[in-house]
Write a structure and sequence with these properties.
DNA-3-methyladenine glycosylase activity, DNA-3mA_glycosylase, 12 helices, mainly alpha, Endonuclease III, domain 1, DNA_glycosylase, DNA-3-methyladenine glycosylase I, globular
């Protein structure tokens, strides 16, 4: 059976994500937040559906600027629920707003969302899941695994023989520290 490294490279949506984002370390809190929210929205759907709606998500969530989303109230929640360009699931939208507020708290306590992730790295996946479930919403094992893998905190985004893997290794993702 083919895997992501076989199917993604020539695909118009999967290709760019596979080749330049998936598994690479991320330093920007807004990008980390975007990845978390996209993974949450993928639950029960295909990743292709999320990638096709990504531009609409970026517009609807105002570039995933954490501070802006954290300040959303009922008017913004209703706007999102009525936006046909995104996945209009109340639980996922509520989770995004809640999780933005959590990220703001983490930024205040640790300086950044990335610093919070770095503080807890390396943890085994089960511990990451437990930690995420304590403070975030809609973060089960698959969502946490994909979020951490996509942002370089867990290995496995690409096969060893995938041409992108060498670029990932050159970027020194956090999971590499686990093997020193």
């Amino acid at each position: 059976m083919a895997d992501y490294c076989d199917l993604a490279p020539t695909h118009p949506f999967h290709g760019p994500y596979h080749d330049s984002e998936y598994g690479f370390p991320v330093a920007d809190d807004d990008v980390l937040f975007e990845r978390l929210i996209l993974e949450i929205n993928q639950a029960g759907l295909s990743w292709l559906t999320v990638l096709k709606k990504r531009e609409a998500f970026q517009a609807a969530f105002e570039g995933f600027e954490v501070a802006r989303v954290a300040a959303y109230g009922e008017a913004e929640r209703e706007r999102l629920l009525n936006d046909a360009g995104i996945i209009r699931n109340r639980r996922k939208i509520d989770a995004a707003i809640h999780d933005a507020r959590v990220v703001r708290e983490l930024q205040e306590a640790f300086g950044s969302f990335k610093a919070w992730l770095d503080y807890h790295h390396p943890l085994p996946l089960a511990e990451w899941v437990k930690l995420f479930r304590q403070i975030f919403r809609f973060t089960g094992p698959e969502i946490v695994n994909e979020f951490l893998m996509s942002t370089g905190y867990l290995p496995g985004a690409h096969r060893e023989d995938c041409p992108v893997q060498s670029r990932i290794l050159a970027a020194a993702p956090p999971w590499m520290d686990s093997f020193d």
